Amino acid sequence: MLKIETFVFNPFQENCYIVSDNSGEAIIIDCGAFFKEERNEIIEYINNNKLEVKGLYATHGHIDHNFGINTIYEHFNCKPQVHINDQNLIEKLPQQALVFCNIKLDYEIPPMGTYLNDEETIKFGEHQLRIIHTPGHSLGSVIFYCEEEKIAFTGDTLFRMSIGRTDLEGGSYEMIVNSLRKIKATLPEDTTILPGHGSSSTIKEEILMNPYLNGI
Questions:
Q1: What is the SS3 assignment for 107?
Q2: How far apart are CA 141 and CA 168, in angstroms?
Q3: Residue 57 backbone phi and psi in degrees, to 5
Q4: First CA to last CA across the chain, in angstroms?
Q5: Maximum distance among all Cα pairs of the chain, rounded to whole angstroms
Q6: What is the SS3 assignment for 205?
Q7: Most buried of the four, 113, 153, 184, 201, by CB within 10 Å?
Q8: Please, what are the domains in the chain?
Q9: Phi-psi bin for 36: left (phi > 0), alpha (psi -120 to 50), beta?
């Protein structure tokens, strides 16, 4: 059974997830830890639970989901991985920090690991996550879906009763609507969604109540 620890980080209140199982292996999804205390919280949780970090993954390349990737690289030797179509955003993280946060990063962005592609599988411990490409919020937005436990990490593509904005670089309302159709057709209604911001929900609740999903 998956153990999922949720951390809410940085001024954007971004959800970072540490996902582990009985094997002691873990992955980190969307490490947005910005403040020193937030970075230490991640390190302490991993060390206190004796977890072996097997991967660092981003649902997309925006700065609020990637503030802490250097800390994970330095402490656990994990290179960040993102969909190939968001390579450009990852390379421009320092510029994003200046434009969106008026912050000059005082650290270098770590080297990238393997770029992610649609329908590939992330394996760790006794579990695996399917990568589903869902462009619209950004060109390389993805969700990570555990079919066995019916859990989907939806990043900024699908929120509880809302969706991610489409007016940033690489964003497209038409694309995100197509991605929502894909999610609706692919994920069972009893799938729990864990988004990049805000609280969890289920596909069924979103089909019933989310105006962006129930009308398509």
A1: coil
A2: 12
A3: -125, 145
A4: 33
A5: 45
A6: helix
A7: 153
A8: 3-209 (3.60.15.10)
A9: alpha
